[in-house]
Design brief:
Blueprint lengths: L7 H18 L5 E8 L5 H13 L8 H4 L3 E7 L11 H10 L11 E9 L4 H6 L3 E8 L2 H4 L9 H12 L2 H16 L8 H19 L43 H23 L6 E6 L1 H7 L1 H16 L19 E6 L10 H18 L6 E6 L7 E7 L2 E8 L6 E2 L2 E2 L6 E3 L54 H9 L5
Parallel strand pairs: 1-4, 1-5, 5-6, 6-7
Antiparallel strand pairs: 2-3, 3-4, 8-9, 9-12, 10-11
Length: about 500
Amino acid sequence: MASSLTTITDEARIALDTLSGRAAGLFSAPSVRLGVTGLSRAGKTVFISALVHNLVHGGRLPLFEAQKSGRIARAVLEHQPDDAVPRFQYEDHIAALVKDRIWPDSTRAISELRLTIEYESASAWNRMFSAGKLSVDIVDYPGEWLLDLPLLGKSFADFSREAFEMAELPVRADLSREWRALAAEAAPDADADEMTARRLAESFSAYLKACKADERALSTLPPGRFLMPGDLDGSPALTFAPLPGLTGERPRAGSLAAMMERRYEAYKTHVVKPFFRDHIARLDRQIVLIDALQALNAGPAAMADLERSVTEILACFRPGRGNVLTDLFSRRIDRILVAATKADHLHHESHDRLQAIVRRLADRAIARANFSGAAVDVVAMAAVRATREGTVKQGKETLPVIIGTPLAGETIDGETFDGKTETAIFPGDLPEDINAVFEQPELASKPAAMDAPVRFVRFRPPKLERTAEGVTLSLPHIRLDRALQFLIGDRLA
């Protein structure tokens, strides 16, 4: 699908920008652009903060070969190359995690950070010709925006038809009822009216936000800027909504349908297309973070929707490996990691099952998206480990538990936590037969909280230990080192 997202003019601009960047790179350290995305609350901000913190502070990364073998001399933050892109506020996020023990604010827009790693190559030949430096440009962006890219290939009539089909699914029907009733009263051929457009847009946005809430945990919710408008809040480009009964014929000039179609096209032209051209088309590596536990708790319909989202996300990338000539004019993503976050909310005995669920989800998404040409892997991880493991006696039975400090207001079995008390929780086990996770999503109109395979509560970040000399240790994690090895390990060989 990525090939349909751009015009010849767009491709020319991409080629020119790439060539300019390659020329500038001749006089600096080699670089790799790593995209970090995921749907809201999947842990993008935490992942980037933990990655940088562990590299800068020499954290325990036994599966990250360059670190394990002692070949990394140091890792330092440097000025990012794109002056027009906001800087990822690493220092603020680390202060929130380490000092305040609160989770940092989630990703609301694009941001960037450059981390330069000084290392010694494992190859004597490479040491002769390489500077021993690699700049990792980390690009953080909301996954909700990525889900807008398929809109570039859809007309307003197509978008409207699909939006109503989705809204009528059992898991969404009650949430969309008010918007669908309001839309049914709006005549597409009636004269354009700003207040009608505004009411429809606000009702449509409210429906999308309700789908995103924990109880449903749905993922496929374009247009993404309706959930995260940023500086476009209130603009005409965000004041539109799908209309029923469109035939695909050109609407009457001055009609409500004509106004909605014009604003939809403006959204694609001024919001979606520049996002792809200026950011997605420039990536070399990509990690897609997903909160599979939240979807599991919400039931099969949420899992089916998550699979749909991952399919559309993967279809938006430009996979493959280039050669010396093509790399001068275009970038291709040659490695993609799909990571299930918050593995610390499960006992390690369930980690393999979580990874198997994500593997199946990713494999099916790759097949449906006709995705090929890049190495793809999956992992169950926690960029910051907020719990530790233990056991408790319950009668004659010994249960594996996780121990941590639940966030204030979290509840389980009628108990509400105060955010200060450390608690041992038996999270439950993921099913051995992962097929049950994906079965009969069309029948799941409401979340099956009573049948949820895990008891999912959110924990505060951990209190970091200190050495005898008073030095604060790096953030603990689960398989962050494996993720690093897959994403950039080959570039440090």
